[in-house]
Design a protein that fits this description.
220 residues; mainly alpha; 0% strand
């Protein structure tokens, strides 16, 4: 892309220097989510913006560049939003709860972009797909650190780091598929419910490690 500001949604608009580029990325985000990347043509994008197809190439080199911009910026800004919550100087339970709240708040405002990360990753070239996976892995590593600490403190209901990470991030990532702004619960209420689902109440005591129990039973 030719200096297209990486801003797939209205939340990013203030960072753009050229409004036409913002409109292009925004239209691509919406159409890719509604129709799918492969089913959206350059002509579709041009019509959505009331432009001639040839004029699009003043802003981009290819449709692939649009998808690349959308998903990489979404992941980078998600990490920027959530990392302070997960790495703050606080008990692990507080960090995990804050991470859930930050992730869901970002997802509520940028649902189309994060949905494309989930459903259109396969549409990128092998090299670009690997780069997105690396970004995703770096983000998930932040969660593993907080989850490990939460388990060590006895604050998490599950005692398996990998399983807990899959459970929490699956719930947070799938949120974009069913959340509605006019729904019964607010983002804050959903984040609180997720926190109570995965984190122990202090009065419940330390969770039991099922693997340790199984080992003890085998020796008995």
């Amino acid at each position: 892309m030719r200096d297209v500001a990486p801003a797939p949604s209205s939340e990013y608009a203030s960072s753009l220097t050229r409004s036409r580029e913002a409109e292009l990325v925004g239209a691509a985000t919406r159409l890719f989510r509604e129709r799918g990347f492969h089913a959206t043509s350059m002509q579709d994008l041009a019509e959505a913006l009331s432009m001639n197809r040839g004029s699009l190439y003043h802003y981009i080199d290819s449709k692939d560049d649009l998808l690349w911009t959308i998903v990489t910026v979404a992941l980078d800004r998600l990490r920027e939003r959530v990392a302070p919550a997960l790495t703050q100087d606080a008990p692990a339970a507080v960090r995990v709860r804050a991470g859930i709240a930050a992730h869901l708040a970002f997802a509520a405002a940028n649902g189309d972009e994060l949905s494309l990360v989930q459903i259109e990753l396969r549409s990128l070239s092998t090299e670009r797909r690997r780069a997105v996976i690396d970004r995703r892995d770096a983000y998930e590593a932040l969660w593993r650190g907080a989850i490990e600490d939460a388990i060590a403190e006895g604050a998490l209901r599950m005692a398996d780091v990998r399983l807990a990470g899959i459970a929490i991030l699956s719930a947070c990532n799938w949120f974009t598929q069913w959340y509605r702004p006019d729904g019964r619960l607010t983002v804050e209420q959903i984040a609180d419910a997720f926190g109570r689902l995965y984190l122990c109440d202090p009065s419940e005591g330390r969770p039991t490690d099922a693997r340790a129990n199984s080992s003890r039973e085998e020796r008995a």
